[in-house]
Amino acid sequence: MTSPTASPAAVDALIIDYNGVLGRQPTTPMWTRLAGIADWPDRHLDAFQSAFWAPREAYDAGELSDLAYWAQVLGHHPGPRLLRELRAADTAMWMHTDDHVLDILRRARARGLPMTLLSNAPHCLSDALDATDWRCELMTDALYSARLGVCKPHPAAYEHALTASGIADPGRVLFVDDRADNCDAASRLGLRTLHYTGRAADLEAALLPAG
Question: Residue 3 has what pLDDT?
Answer without folding.
Answer: 42
